[in-house]
Amino acid sequence: MPELPEVETTLRGIKPHIIDQKIIDVIVRHPRLRWPVPVNLKKRLQGQKLSRLYRRGKYLLFEFDTGTLILHLGMSGRVRILPEFVPARKHDHIDISFDNGKILRFTDPRRFGALLWTAEDPLQHPLLKEIGPEPLSDALSGDYLWERARNRKVAVKSFIMDSRIIAGVGNIYATEALFLSKIRPQTAAGKLGLEQYRNLAASIKTILEKAIQKGGTTLKDFTKSDGTPGYFSIELQAYGHAGKPCPRCRSSMKSARIGQRSTVYCPSCQK
Fold first, then answer.
1. Among the options 198, 214, 261, 267, which is catalytic?
2. Which of 16, 87, 214, 235 is least enclosed by beta carbons within 10 angstroms?
3. How far, in Å, CA of 36 to CA of 116, rounded?
């Protein structure tokens, strides 16, 4: 699944091509995604100018005068900018054409993505209103995490992956941040001290910033908006490295299941 750096990379890739541009056409080939695409989407969007494009967690928000388009990439979705019409393939579900000749194409083989419309405040939409602070903002701090973790028995990895606690930290980057901060992912969230959480908050920011700079993690289902893969996967130190030597102490990396998700950690370095 694309995680926050992939979504941020996508945002930065498509924004310069479509911001302040007027929509001239919308083609919906397959309306049945995770939720049905609004039946009147073309009528709502045609003739409108995209005034703002931003990210909240793993959602992309396309703001117009009359409302906001909410896009989630799901498990395998991606969007690309096409310079002109290119024949659609099997999983190319939606095209949005702009008056500068650019086309925004949404592709999603598994159809777990979503494209929704709201005329209200998008941040109060049921999918977004409970999302926690952005991990790269000042709102995320060790003090905040420590306060929210009080008496929590859930594993710290599950805790930081909870979107109500932090926006958009998924399995890959939670694994990497815990490795960097030398915290064992199975540890109960309520048992960590303030300094550990300050270290963890800093590690989350470091890992995500590096991933964004490198263009996201290369996964089989993700490519950047221009069709080229991200490159951060070559620098992953824990995720996918079960059984390999720890890059810090050379101990064998172990795997475990936490909250139905696999995780990798060093039994020697991460306490």
1. 261
2. 87
3. 8
CA 2 to chain centre: 5
Could you confirm whether 261 is annotated as catalytic?
A: yes
Q: What CA–CA distance (Å, rounded) separates 238 from 192?
A: 21
Q: What is the mean pLDDT of residues 87-96?
A: 93
Least confident piece of the model among 17-26, 28-37, 66-75, 77-86? 77-86
pLDDT, tens only, 6-16:
899 889 989 99
Active site (annotated) includes residue 2: yes
Of 55, 58, 80, 224, the active-site residue reads 58
Phi, psi (deg, nearest 5) at residue 54 = -150, 175
CATH code: domain 4-124 is 3.20.190.10
Measure the CA dihedral 44/49/51/52, to 10°. Answer: 60
Q: Which of 2, 5, 135, 185 is catalytic?
A: 2
Residue 195 annotated in active site = no
Within the chain, which residue ranges are assigned CATH 3.20.190.10?
Answer: 4-124
The mean predicted confidence, pLDDT, of the chain is 91
- Residue 238's pLDDT band (cuts 50, 70, 90): very high
Between residues 271 and 199, the one the model is more confident about: 199
